[in-house]
Amino acid sequence: MTRQIAITVYLLSGLLLAVTGSAGAFEIMKGKWQVETEMRNPMSPQPQFKSSIECITEESFDPAQAMMEGGQCTITDKQDSVDSITWTFKCGGNGMPESSGTGKFTTSGKTANGEMQMSMIFNGQTMTMTNSWKGQHLGNKCD
Fold first, then answer.
1. How far is Cα 141 from Cα 15, in angstroms, rounded to an integer?
2. How many domains does the structure of the chain reveal?
3. Which one of 33, 52, 57, 69 is separated from 137 by 20 to 30 angstroms, measured CA to CA?
4. What H or E segment, with its residue span, contains residue 76?
5. Sign, Cα dihedral of 81, 84, 88, 91
6. What is the reported pTM?
7. What gap in Å lies between CA 11 and CA 16, rounded to an integer?
């Protein structure tokens, strides 16, 4: 995987872990969460896995909004409720390749999961990457 594609994939994945408060948005339990991420792309023969502990301090957040705050993405369609959010996006510019895709994130009490599919044109070829997340609430207090 080229360095630029790797940076793009990790940047977009990380944006979904960034918690941004937004009244009336998708709700999630506050506290410590174990988050397992699986990243698949055609440049890597095997999926890549990442595990992290995240401290969620807001009762609501909007992963789609977090993508836009990076300044490289535009949300073209978003549907949200208390327990799920879906969105369509386009990204690119300032050295990032153009990309587009969809995302979905759902929660049910002490569990959460989501997936984002993104396609980009790199060296004249369309590449599709998929990132998926599974979260487990570990407790109300963060260390």
1. 23
2. 1
3. 69
4. strand 73-80
5. positive
6. 0.71
7. 9
Q: How far is CA 13 from CA 55, 84, 123, 124, 140, in A?
A: 16, 18, 22, 24, 24
Residue from 12, 5, 19 nearest 112 by CA: 19
**Residue 81 dihedral angles phi and psi, to the nearest 5°:** -140, -175
Task: Give the torsion sign (CA, 22, 23, 24, 30).
Answer: positive
Cβ-based neighbours of 24, under 8 Å, separated by 6 or more: 60
| Selection from 143, 48, 56 nearest residue 107 by Cα | 56
Beta bridge partners of 115: 104, 132
- Quote the CA–CA distance of 90 and 16 in Å, as a whole number: 15
Could you tell me the residue range of the domain that residue 135 belongs to? 3-139
Contact 12, 67 (CB under 8 A): yes
